[in-house]
Amino acid sequence: MNNNELNRLWLGKTSNPPTIDEIRVRLHQMKKKKQVERFVLGGIVILTIAAIITIWIFFQPTLISTKVGIIVTLAGMIFYPLAYYRVIPNLNEFNEDSTSSVFLEALLKLKGREKFLQTKVLGAYFIMLSTGLFLYLFEYISKMDTILAWLFCLLTIAWLMFNWFYLRPIVVKKNTAKLNETIEKVKAIQQQIELFR
């Protein structure tokens, strides 16, 4: 079914489901958002990797744990974007002439993939980053005064916990709500189409 058929169906509607134009706008917004996310993620990763390598070169760590920490952190920094680019489909393959059923199917697949990304992949990334950070910091913490070292460790752990238990759920909830809203709108269109078949 193409847009002309959907527009004809819309003329006979009795309720207020979303319009085709609203769905087109939503699709366009999602495409733009995902493109910006991909670009920003790539830029942040490149800058962070450059900073980590610069630290390694200029500070010349002596302990093997510090070097292993840097490598684990770099692996985590490379792992997440690669997983993100492979898991999240490219929404550019769906255009305004795609049928609502194709779009709905793609959104449901996207929802499942985002859930996998936000649970398994993000968990693995967080473990790699935390492990790398603590292995890296071990050399420098061991040279600190005991009280300062404990304070630094507690602040680092508190920051990691704040990110994992507070910030991550907020972002996940917000992204899931937006995706669910779009899915419900497309489902409303599907129901209207089914009524007129």
List the helices and strands and how they pair.
Elements: H1 3-11, H2 20-59, H3 64-87, H4 100-142, H5 146-195
Helix pairs in contact: 2-3, 3-4, 4-5
Describe the structure.
- With 197 residues, the chain is mostly helical.
- The chain has one domain.
- It contains 5 helices and no strands.
- Helix 2 packs antiparallel against helix 3, helix 3 (64-87) packs antiparallel against helix 4 and helix 4 runs antiparallel to helix 5 (146-195).
- The longest helix has 50 residues, at 146-195.
- The chain is elongated and about 75 Å long.
- The model has no long low-confidence stretch (mean pLDDT 81).
State the major sheet. none
Round the mean pLDDT to the nearest integer and report it.
Answer: 81
Please state the structural category: mainly alpha
Q: How many strands appear in the DSSP assignment?
A: 0
Give the amount of beta strand, in percent: under 5%
Shape descriptor reads: elongated
What's the order of the H and E elements? HHHHH
Q: What's the alpha carbon Rg, rounded to whole Å?
A: 23 Å
Distance between the termini: 11 Å
DSSP helix count?
Answer: 5
Helix content: over 70%
User: Which parts are unreliable, with pLDDT below 50 for 5 consecutive residues or more?
Assistant: none
Number of discrete domains: 1
Transmembrane segments: 39-58, 64-85, 121-141, 147-167
Keywords: Membrane, Transmembrane, Transmembrane helix
